[in-house]
C-alpha cells in the first residue's frame, strides 16, 4: 500500500487536471463511437473506418507540413516580438495554404483510385474524398490555430477547444452512424474536426486582434527553413505508420475476411485509449524535463523516475485489462467481436514493451536527434510490416498482434542499447 500511495502522491500524477479531464472526454467519446460502430456497422465496417482514419491522419500531417511543434516553439520564443511573430504566422499561412490547394487537387483527381486503395473494389466511396476537399481548409486551419495558441501559452483555451470539439464531434458522429451506417461513420471523421475551426479562430483573433498582417511581404524563407527541420520527424512517422497499418488491415481482408481486420482494428482502438494517458503524461511532464536535462546523469534520473512510477502502474492496469477482457469486449462492442479476446495477450505484451520504450523515444525529440529517430522509427515499421505479414498467414489477426509484440520488444532492446550510458549512469 505504501508503494502505491507513494506513486499516487507523486507530482507526475497531479499534473494538469483539466488536461486529464480532456483526455477522459476524448476516451469516453471514442468508446461511444466504437460502440455505435459495433452495433450499426460490425467488424468489417470498423476495418473500413480504420483505413480511412489512417488516411486522414496522413492528410493532417502533410496538410500542416508537420509544422505543429515548430510553430509552438517559434511563437513561444517570439511572444513579445510582434513583428517576428507576425512573420512566423504569415510564413505558415502561405505555406499551408499552398499545400491545401495541392492536396485538394490530388483528392479531386484521384478520388476513384483512393477509394479502391482504402476501401477495396467492392466499395465505392469516391464521394467522401470530394467532401474532404470542402472540409480540408477548416480542418487544417484549426490545427494551425491551436498550435499558435499553444505557442502563446493559452493552454486552457486549447484544452477547452479539444473538450468541446470532442463532445460535438461524438454527438454528430453518433447521429450520422445511426442514420447512414458506414457512410455516416466516414462522414463524421471528415466533418467533426472541422467544427473546432470556428472556436479556435475566435479565440486566436481575441489574442491577435486581427489578421491584417497576413501580407506576402511578411513571408520569411529563413523561418520556413527553420520550421522544415522540425517537421521532418513528424512527416517520416506519418508517411510510414498509416501505410503499414493499412497494409496489415488489407492483408487480413484479402487473406481472411473483413471481420478479422475489424477484430485487429478493435484491439488497436482499445490500446489507443489507455496509451493516451501515458502519452499525455510524457508530453506534459517528462518531455520538458528531458529537454532541460543537461547531462547523462540528469537524463538518467528522468528515465528512472518514469520506470519507477508510470511503468508499474501501467503494468498492473494491463493485467486488469487481460482479466476483464471478455467484459470489456461486451461493453465496448458486442457478441460479434467475441473472437477478438484471443488478441489481448500479445497486444498487451506489445504495449508494455512500447510504453517501456516511450520515454527513450522522447529523448530523440528532446535532444533533436533527427537522424537517430528516423533510423530507429523506420526500423520498427519494417519489422512490424514483415513480421505481421508473415505471421498473419499462419495465425490470422492473432499474427498481427504477435508482430506488434515482436516489433516493440526489438525496438526497446535497440533503444536501451543506444541510451545505455544515460540509463545506467551511477547516480541515475
UniProtKB/TrEMBL annotation:
Record keyword Cell membrane present: yes
Keyword annotations of the record: Cell membrane, Membrane, Transmembrane, Transmembrane helix
Pfam families: Polysacc_synt (PF01943)
Superkingdom of this protein's organism: Bacteria
Matches recorded under InterPro entries: Poly_Biosynth_Transport (IPR050833), Polysacc_synth (IPR002797), WzxE (IPR044550)
Subcellular location: Cell membrane
Main location, first listed in the record: membrane
An example Gene Ontology biological process: enterobacterial common antigen biosynthetic process
Membrane topology annotation: Multi-pass membrane protein
Record GO cellular component, one term: plasma membrane
Ranges that cross the membrane: 23-49, 92-115, 127-149, 161-180, 186-204, 224-246, 266-288, 309-333, 345-366, 378-395, 401-419
PANTHER family hit by this protein: LIPID III FLIPPASE, PST FAMILY PREDICTED COLANIC ACID TRANSPORTER
Protein name per UniProt: O-antigen translocase
Originating organism: Flavobacterium arcticum
